[in-house]
Amino acid sequence: GMRMQPADAGRLVLASEQHSLRIDGQPLPVLRTRTPVVVAAHKPRGMAVVLSAGERDSRFREWLVAISAALSEGGIGRELSPVGRLDKATTGLLLLTDDGDLDLALRDSSTLLKAYVAVVGADAATAHAASTRLLAGVPLPDGEARAMDVLVMGSSEELEAAAQQPGLAGLAAISLPGAPAAAAPAGGGARAAVLLRLSDGRNRVVRRMLAAAGLPCLFLHRLAYGPLDLAALDLAAPG
């Protein structure tokens, strides 16, 4: 038979498979914790990541549905949402999760650094001079933005050398004039590649801080999110 035991006000009562909670004889549903799902994906160029149903980008929605369908085939049926956003022209690592608390913790973290590489419309000397401002902090309308680390590369050889460093293998896909690669930006003129690491996750903050430092951003790619490295995860750009 069932043994009923009343609970005093303020007493912590845990429900399990062997026990149930009842109010006026009616069972309460048991809340079970589950492991959050986190998916690392390679966002292509040409679709904007959206955060709410009111913001529509049909290509992104279709991409998200395809990822969710692949998870369902593997026995993981979860509704995923993007952690933060990447604008339409930005490519690279995007995290998706089904856990709202984890999403908020990742986006609000002041210690979890995101790594980006930008190709800017300036020569290496100009980019080196601007890097001091990026490290010191540049004023933006919604508050100062500061990079924790900046590396300027003015040639394909410097890009190749930097790509040998831990976590920077993705730099091998970036091109400056004279070296063909998949991520070559359009147009001519002076070019330099700028690697930035920062915790700031505000909308278009990397493009805006580069512009404020006098470096027009021609191409932007996210290499890593905290310890997750796009190249190490072997996530090729979608076709």
UniProtKB/TrEMBL annotation:
PROSITE patterns: PSI_RSU. This is Pseudouridine synthase RsuA/RluA-like domain-containing protein. The lineage of its organism: Eukaryota, Sar, Alveolata, Dinophyceae, Gonyaulacales. It holds the Pfam family PseudoU_synth_2. GO terms for biological process: pseudouridine synthesis; rRNA processing. Belongs to the pseudouridine synthase RsuA family. InterPro entries: PsdUridine_s_RsuA/RluB/E/F_cat, PsdUridine_synth_cat_dom_sf, PsdUridine_synth_RsuA/RluA, PsdUridine_synth_RsuA/RluB_CS, RsuA_PseudoU_synthase, TruA/RsuA/RluB/E/F_N. It comes from the Eukaryota. GO terms for molecular function: pseudouridine synthase activity; RNA binding. Residues 38-212 form the Pseudouridine synthase RsuA/RluA-like domain. Keywords: Isomerase. The keyword Isomerase applies. The keyword Protein biosynthesis does not apply.
